[in-house]
Each structure stands twice: as C-alpha cells, then as structure tokens.
Amino acid sequence: MPRMAARYMLSEHWDGNLPVDPFAIARAANVVVEHDPEMERRELGRFELIDGRPHIYTNSTEPESRMRFVVANELGHFALKHGRRFVDTSRQFAPVQLDEIENQANRFALELLIPGFAVNILIEKQNVTDFIRLTEAFAVSQLAMKLRLKKLGWIY
Question: Please, what sign has the CA dihedral across residues 148, 150, 151, 152?
Fold first, then answer.
C-alpha cells in the first residue's frame, strides 16, 4: 500500500527532477506545509486535518535534510489515510519500527524520496554506482539510501 500511494503521489505531483522535493509535492497535493515555532523540541513533525484541509507542521530547529524525510513521512500519513492527527518524534523514524502505521509512513517516505525506477536508471543507464553519489543525488541520509538499496535488491 505505501508503494502504490507513493507512486501515485509521484505520478501526479513530481516534476521529475532529483532530488525529489517533498515540500513541492505536498503543496501540489494541496497540503499546507509550514514550520511551527511552538513545536516541542522532541517533536519533528505533525500532520493534522484542520477543517478538512491537510496540514504538515515541521520543527524549525531541525536541519533541512531531516525535514525532507519528516515531510515525506507526514505526507504518507495523509496519503495512506491514517487519521486526523499524528505527531512524530525521532522514535517514529527508527529503522526498525514496530508500530505498523509508522512503518507504513516510513516506507511511503522512502518510496517517495528514492523512487525505485530513478535508482535503477542512475545505476543501470548512467553507471552511478558510488554509494555517496547516490545518497547525494537523492539528498537522503546514508541510512535511508542503504535501506532503499536493500529493498531494491542492489545490496544485501
């Protein structure tokens, strides 16, 4: 389900450029994205439906690189229809997630930020095989890239 939802979101709202811009995709899907200066320090992001309109709030103290994943994750809560409100802390972004809803949102985020077909094109057609170059091309953490490459069968 996360894979199909992410593919749909990409097909409808992505401009085709790397790195994938989750902020632009969210806005194109009519999701309001903004920093919340009142957000508690331990919170990274929040998804809420307010008067039927989806909103994603981010913690302005976090680096841009982390916010990309947070926005993609919160967009996953929206796309997967997980409910009216979710607050995420760093615990929700652990590589091993026991909470199935957070697991789905994390998988959605990886699928959105690192589309499998784009990885395959870079590796097979453009011969980009250096791990760091791939990580930079998609503007994701090394952990996110490692998880995605494993899922795609490029590493074990």
Answer: positive
